[in-house]
Design a protein that fits this description.
single chain; alpha+beta; 8-stranded antiparallel beta sheet; 8 helices; disordered C terminus
Length: about 230
């Protein structure tokens, strides 16, 4: 049954791709923000070690990631002070840059599990109301690898609104949502998008008590994680 579904899904993708050869792309409006993510997060924090990381351990991996993701901007930043540690990954695509369904397929659900992590707990579209912040609903996960657990929050914003992943583990694309994203992009163009991920070996309840973590969240909120940020636009 699964093989039949995959065959049908693959056939639809191939036929849709062929159709694109005869349909002119839509006009895209709105400029890209370009490089702006790094300035949203604090770096000079007394007592904390703050480092920016690459997307891959080798030049070949980084080149492959760049080719596949086609990022307009990204930041992968780690924060550590003693036993306190967490990391932030943010990616940005300007209008017209990347299909929504392609961004939606690169979540920890898929990418982490392909690298050996096992999801041990998951919650879907959870409102985040902590530390004085009221953030858009997040996908909440816990992964384990070789006895090491890591807690994850992630958001995918499409023109300021959370992408609807549904109530499922997204290690494979949802065919219906994939097709909706495909046809929407075909006729309306690709929207501006952000992908934001926070991960830590610590329970987030502990991190919400840390002023530095709240300062980082404040920077993320200004990118659109607070509902009123986009409501004002």
């Amino acid at each position: 049954m699964m093989n039949r579904i995959l065959l049908i899904f693959g056939s639809v993708v191939v036929l849709s791709s062929l159709a694109l050869q005869f349909i002119p792309p839509p006009d895209h409006t709105g400029p890209s923000k370009g490089s702006h993510l790094s300035d949203t997060l604090p770096t000079d924090l007394p007592g904390w070690n703050v480092e920016d990381q690459e997307l891959g351990e080798t030049e070949a991996v980084r080149a492959a990631a760049d080719k596949q993701l086609q990022l307009d901007d990204f930041v992968y930043r780690t924060y550590q002070k003693g036993r306190l540690s967490f990391d932030i990954y943010m990616a940005y695509w300007g209008p017209g840059k990347m299909p929504v369904q392609m961004v939606a397929s690169h979540t920890p659900d898929r990418c982490w599990t392909e690298n050996g992590w096992v999801c041990t707990d998951m919650l879907f579209a959870v409102p985040v109301r902590q530390g004085g912040f009221d953030l858009l609903p997040a996908q909440v996960r816990t992964f384990e690898l070789q006895g090491q657990a890591r807690n994850v929050l992630y958001w995918h914003l499409v023109e300021g609104k959370p992408y609807d992943y549904g109530s499922r583990f997204n290690d494979a694309p949802d065919p219906r949502r994939w097709l909706v994203g495909f046809w929407s992009g075909l006729w309306e163009g690709q929207p501006e998008q952000y992908f934001i991920r926070i991960s830590s070996i610590l329970d987030f309840k502990e991190l919400w008590r840390e002023p530095v973590f709240l300062e980082v969240i404040d920077g993320l909120a200004k990118l659109g994680l607070q509902p009123e940020v986009f409501a004002e636009k």
